[in-house]
Structure formats: structure tokens, C-alpha cells
Amino acid sequence: MNAACRVVARRAYSTRSYIPPNLANGVKSAGPKAESGDLSGLVEFYKRIPKGAAEAAKPTNWIARYRAKYWEGENASFTPILHAMLLVGGLHYTLAYNFHLKNHKNVEHH
């Protein structure tokens, strides 16, 4: 493959994303519509495109909802650190009780 073919191929693939698929098929089709220059299909295509900014996606799982509620934007707070401290403290007490404290309920060995 020579250099000229590579350049042509690269240009063909780099501009492909700019042409909507419905337009490429509709304008190139043979028939009276293509010969007369009727662009009603093109106009209808661009009328259906949404205008304005896209809506923000709503979080779907519990981690994303927690992050949106406590970490991001103007809702950022110290609360996640407190939640982490309570989680680690509760986990520590649970493990300490199961491995040590339940065996010494009546202070027999102290």
C-alpha cells in the first residue's frame, strides 16, 4: 500500500464520524428525490436532533447516589468521613467482641 492510498484511507475514516448515517444513505440514493435536490429528509433529520444542553444522568446504584448526595457539587461535606469512622468502629467492636469479649463476660480470667 503506497503513501497516497494511506492518506486517502485515513481521510475517509477520519471524516466518517461527521456524516450522520441517515444522511449519507438518503442523499446518495437514486431516484427523482436525489436528482431534484429535495432536501426534506435532511431538514427532518436536523429537526429531530435535540437542542440545548443534555440532561444530567441520574445515579442508578447506591454508591453513585451516595456520592452525588455527599461528595459532589455544593453538597460536599464531612459526613462521609464520619460514616467511615462509624463503620470502622462498628467493625472493630464486632470483631473484638467475637474474638475476645464474649469469652470473658463474667471477668473470670482477669
Automatic annotation (TrEMBL):
UniProt protein name: ATP synthase f chain, mitochondrial
